Automatic annotation (TrEMBL):
<dbReference type="InterPro" id="IPR033467">
    <property type="entry name" value="Tesmin/TSO1-like_CXC"/>
</dbReference>
<dbReference type="InterPro" id="IPR028307">
    <property type="entry name" value="Lin-54_fam"/>
</dbReference>
<dbReference type="Pfam" id="PF03638">
    <property type="entry name" value="TCR"/>
</dbReference>
<comment type="similarity">
    <text>Belongs to the lin-54 family.</text>
</comment>
<dbReference type="GO" id="GO:0006355">
    <property type="term" value="P:regulation of DNA-templated transcription"/>
</dbReference>
<feature type="domain" description="CRC">
    <location>
        <begin position="227"/>
        <end position="340"/>
    </location>
</feature>
<dbReference type="InterPro" id="IPR005172">
    <property type="entry name" value="CRC"/>
</dbReference>
<protein>
    <recommendedName>
        <fullName>CRC domain-containing protein</fullName>
    </recommendedName>
</protein>
<dbReference type="GO" id="GO:0005634">
    <property type="term" value="C:nucleus"/>
</dbReference>
<keyword id="KW-0539">Nucleus</keyword>
DNA sequence: GAGTTTGAAACT
DNA sequence: CAGTTTCAAACTC
């Protein structure tokens, strides 16, 4: 049973030097389910990579790739992978995946010398669970590290009985604009190396799951220490997503939690809890904050918030806390966390596109046309039509009167929209979501 | 620091 | 899937 559980979960561990802008790194996952096409679901790790280091991939994803754009000047801060054979890797494999960041580098016991002697040669990306060591696939192009070969030595396959070994081989390829660390280009690489020993199940008694990164046990200020906040859980044993440490894939350290099981002393319980969370939501450990590179960095909350009382202007709101605007994904009420300029920009575009009311200063947009407004308008037109029918007007006259009524309705809608926005301006009562949808005034047209 | 508010997560 | 409960962080005093 346990093995069955393990083979469904794969993790990618991507450790990148703190100076690298992690938000520019994307991780793509590829479903290996029959009939699926590459590429599969793509998502952004964002802070996942920086803070967690090990990103759990949903159990249906057995392949993934990590894209690191090359056009970042500080990319040279990525340190190359050092070469390491599997036997050495096995020796360093431990149930504790303890990455340590410091000003000199970082280490991973799966692929680095735990003594730290290889700190300057540790991998920017190392992989476990479903990934196998590679050899000489990529020459890192940087002044610091030129000619170093990217060889994710020490990467392991972990009980992947359901997958062919080669299907799980990680690969690192070079593209013009980005470095791609991938797992799905496995077949051609399989021939390049001797998998005889590497494919053996690892010596890990416990899968590394989403172990913490940067659990600095000494006094050195580590990268993750700077970002990790101690939790104060009392009832969840730090094994539910209520716990920020657990949710961030970190092990509790220097927390003031009670009955904490989010540590390696309770690895079994912790792993079980992770499985439960992943079963409930395969994206449970993915960052809730999406980021994409589209010339300008845009960030958004993947699920959106559901705030009701905070106006999305307090840290209760996950969007606000992440310093991003609420989006159409949000179901918040009375949202104030939106960009006025964005709303007005969108409104202006829609007005110029759909109407000829450019002379008006009203920036209300067509999103004023809520269901309620449409129903009310239809009701007016229907009532007008009934009146016309009673009066026995000709068809032409009836059409003209009905159209006049329709024009009147449109005028009223625009006036109400303008009035509404002005009221919002005066009282600062934001009732417009950033997507331009008017809220909280459903009855204004009735 | 205690108590309250808040909204996500978990549960039913 | 909607409503309710639990939980811990955020906030207030």
């Amino acid at each position: 049973m346990r093995e069955h559980e393990f083979q469904r979960h794969y993790y990618a561990c991507a450790s990148v030097h703190p100076l690298v802008n992690i938000s520019h790194i994307r991780v793509s996952t590829f479903s290996m389910e029959e009939g699926s096409d590459f590429p599969g679901l793509e998502y952004s790790c964002g802070e996942d990579l920086r803070r967690i280091s090990m990103v759990p991939l949903a159990y249906t994803y057995t392949n993934f790739s990590i894209h690191i754009p090359n056009n970042y000047s500080n990319i040279s801060h990525l340190t190359p992978l050092h070469h390491q054979d599997s036997s050495e890797a096995e020796q360093t494999c431990s149930s504790v995946w303890d990455h340590e960041f410091n000003t000199h580098g970082f280490s991973c016991p799966l692929c680095c010398d735990p003594s730290g002697s290889h700190l300057s040669h540790c991998p920017p990306v190392c992989c476990s669970d479903g990934l196998l060591p590679l050899t000489d696939l990529y020459q890192f192009q940087s002044p610091m590290t030129a000619s170093h070969a990217w060889t994710p030595g020490g990467a392991f396959q972990y009980h992947t009985s359901s997958a062919e070994p080669c299907d799980s081989v990680g690969s690192i390829t070079s593209a013009e604009d980005e470095q791609i660390f991938s797992t799905h280009e496995s077949s051609r690489h399989c021939n390049q190396m001797d998998l005889g020993q590497s494919v053996q199940p690892t010596c890990c008694p416990i899968p590394p799951d989403i172990e913490t990164v940067g659990q600095n046990k000494d006094s050195t200020r580590s990268f993750s220490e700077n970002s990790k906040k101690p939790c104060h859980c009392t009832k969840s044993q730090c094994l539910k997503l209520y716990c920020d440490c657990f949710a961030n894939g970190e092990i509790c350290s220097e927390c003031s939690c009670i009955n904490c099981c989010n540590n390696m002393e309770h690895a079994t319980e912790r792993h079980r809890a992770i499985m439960i969370c992943l079963d409930r939501n395969p994206d449970a450990f993915h960052s809730k904050i999406n980021s994409s590179i589209e010339g300008v960095m845009k960030r958004s909350h993947t699920r959106g918030c559901n705030c009701k009382s905070s106006g999305c202007l307090k840290n209760y709101c996950e969007c606000y806390k992440a310093q991003i605007m609420c989006s159409s994904m949000c179901k918040c009420v009375s949202c104030n966390n939106y960009s006025r300029s964005e709303v007005e920009k969108q409104s202006t575009v829609e007005m110029s596109t759909h109407t000829h009311h450019n002379t008006t200063q009203c920036t209300a947009n067509l999103s004023c046309l809520t269901d309620t407004v449409v129903k009310a308008t239809c009701g007016c037109l229907l009532a007008q039509a009934e009146e016309v029918e009673k009066e026995g007007l000709s068809r032409v006259q009836a059409e003209r009167v009905t159209l006049e009524e329709f024009g009147y309705c449109l005028t009223q809608i625009l006036v109400k929209c303008c009035d509404f926005l002005e009221t919002k301006e005066l009282f600062g009562a934001a009732v417009v979501s950033h997507s331009g949808i008017l809220l909280n005034r459903e009855s204004w047209c009735s």
